[in-house]
Amino acid sequence: MAILPNLLTVTGLLFLTHAVYSAHEHSTLYATYATAPSLPLDIVFETLISVLLACAGIISASPALKPIRWARWAGAAEREEARRRLLKGKAVQGAGEVPLGNPWAWVTGERMGFWDGREKRREFADWVRGGGKI
């Protein structure tokens, strides 16, 4: 466990608590006046510095980011969808099984006029292989 990130976070939160208390005291002190003076700059700076310290501590204590693996999930979902299309007439799921595959198939599969980029890419590749004549 790293001590410096935790120390930064605690220090930032303590200073933030003090800044909030100071702002509250300032506002109650001038509550009886018709036009209250603006918040002093030392309270504003203390608030900003304390927030920056707390954010730096929280960010440095957080674990490293993991890579996004949506492409792997999407490929598996598309393979499952292709397998279902092959087994269209047969019972794919047993009783009580949770359906797998692409959860967005209802959006792209049955929608009329949906532009399929992969199919267009295949058509274009076939057109180029065929000589590319109009």
TrEMBL record:
Short name of any one Pfam family annotated for the protein: MMgT
The subcellular location is:
Endomembrane system
Q: Which InterPro entries match?
A: EMC_subunit, MMgT
Major site of localization recorded for this protein:
membrane
- Topology with respect to the bilayer: Multi-pass membrane protein
Q: Does the keyword Signal apply?
A: yes
Q: Which residues form the signal peptide?
A: 1-22
Q: Tell me where the transmembrane regions lie.
A: 38-59
> Which terms are listed as keywords in the entry?
Membrane, Signal, Transmembrane, Transmembrane helix
Family per similarity comment: Belongs to the membrane magnesium transporter (TC 1.A.67) family.
Q: What name does the UniProt record give this protein?
A: Magnesium transporter
